[in-house]
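Practice problem 4.
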């Protein structure tokens, strides 16, 4: 008997699962595919045959193998709108851009962002406490947009650039919903988005010049980013393209995460009361938001929400050289996709995976480092520390004023692209904890 390992099976021989119903219920379709076929199968995604990889261990294997073998796969629309932003770069250019972006987004930079973030958050959560809102996700998106503009660009609410930025950025975000192929050229949103991109690039350049002259609000990442990209090689991409990507991720991804944090707290009053006791300490000591061991309860709520409600349902890769995943040979040119939720709902990694159980992250049953909502490996999201800080700061501010309440209950309809969010307006209010 030979001791040689068995040769990997060609991916072309994988079972093929139908994509029927994927748009309306992607997680249900993926779950059924993994139940039928195991951790890896094929399925058409946007009309193209794609290898789907699931289970928590399977995602770990993908991230460990992707450097130099798998590139992020984006549509022509994304390349047109975002240019040479980080997620459109490959090889040495990708690594160089990450190196220059990382310091402004790392844990060391976060303490400087706390005061400006709280200045933006306070008025919004005061309004929610007084009047509630008819549309939680819409209000959260508005808030995360203002937070992103403040901490990345130094734009303070009410200043001259605030309205211009908000209007142009909304046009740009709307353009990401255009059809991704050649049909985008016939879509008004696409051309409006291209125009907004030029307007935003000019605004970024003006803000960068103000930072260089010392004539700008403090507590913004822009000054450090301008310095980091001074003299950067062309392959690293221009700073304005990276800013566009950072802003849309900070607003949309964080808005999705925050919406579901508040939805889950509204549905689990006992957890909300427990977290509120901890949140009140933040008012006296805001530095707890960035302390390594600070706010364990709020962080457990955040981690469990990330596990249950990963903002991005599916991330795409393309093999650029041969590799083996889950015992199957993946040839160059093959599309590979993973869903963070497919790993987060793996009962071997997370017992009772469909239940909201933040305590699993308090008792050591699970670690937030085992979550894949921000990806992993060579393409892991650099903005994770900032997104988590923004979410923690808003949750703490909300819980200082009351307990989340959904007057008409949780959302009945959910959209999963571009980020998981309620389809219909979702009324939200804050109630006294007494």
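Answer key:
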């Amino acid at each position: 008997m030979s001791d040689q390992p068995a040769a990997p099976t060609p991916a072309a021989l994988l079972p093929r699962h139908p994509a029927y119903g994927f748009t309306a219920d992607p997680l249900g379709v993926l779950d059924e595919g993994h139940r039928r076929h195991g951790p890896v199968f094929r399925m058409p995604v946007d009309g193209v045959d794609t290898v789907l990889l699931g289970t928590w261990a399977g995602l770990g294997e993908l991230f460990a193998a992707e450097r130099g073998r798998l590139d992020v796969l984006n549509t022509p629309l994304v390349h047109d709108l975002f240019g040479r932003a980080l997620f459109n770069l490959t090889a040495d250019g990708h690594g160089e851009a990450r190196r220059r972006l990382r310091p402004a987004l790392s844990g060391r930079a976060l303490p400087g962002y706390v005061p400006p973030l709280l200045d933006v958050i306070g008025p919004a959560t005061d309004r929610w406490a007084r009047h509630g809102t008819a549309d939680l996700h819409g209000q959260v998106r508005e808030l995360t947009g203002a937070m992103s503009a403040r901490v990345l660009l130094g734009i303070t609410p009410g200043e001259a650039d605030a309205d211009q930025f908000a209007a142009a950025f909304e046009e740009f975000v709307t353009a990401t919903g255009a059809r991704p192929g050649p049909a985008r050229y016939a879509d008004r949103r696409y051309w409006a988005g291209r125009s907004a991109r030029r307007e935003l690039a000019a605004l970024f350049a003006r803000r960068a010049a103000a930072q260089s002259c010392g004539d700008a609000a403090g507590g913004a990442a822009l000054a450090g980013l301008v310095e980091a990209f001074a003299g950067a090689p062309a392959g690293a991409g221009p700073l304005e393209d990276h800013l566009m990507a950072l802003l849309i991720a900070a607003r949309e991804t964080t808005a999705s995460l925050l919406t579901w944090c508040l939805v889950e707290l509204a549905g689990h009053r006992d957890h909300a009361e427990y977290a509120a006791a901890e949140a009140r300490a933040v008012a006296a000591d805001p530095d707890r938001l960035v302390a390594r061991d600070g706010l364990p309860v709020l962080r457990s709520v955040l981690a469990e929400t990330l596990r249950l409600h990963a903002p991005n349902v599916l991330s795409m890769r393309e093999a650029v050289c041969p590799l083996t995943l889950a015992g199957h040979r993946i040839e160059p040119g093959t599309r590979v996709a993973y869903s963070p939720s497919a790993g987060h709902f793996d009962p071997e990694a997370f017992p009772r995976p469909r239940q909201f159980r933040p305590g699993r992250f308090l008792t050591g049953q699970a670690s937030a480092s085992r979550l894949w909502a921000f990806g992993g490996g060579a393409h892991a999201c650099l903005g994770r520390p900032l997104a988590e800080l923004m979410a923690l700061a808003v949750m703490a501010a909300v819980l200082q004023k009351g307990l989340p309440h959904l007057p008409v209950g949780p959302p009945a309809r959910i959209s999963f692209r571009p980020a998981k969010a309620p389809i219909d307006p979702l009324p939200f209010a804050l109630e006294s904890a007494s």
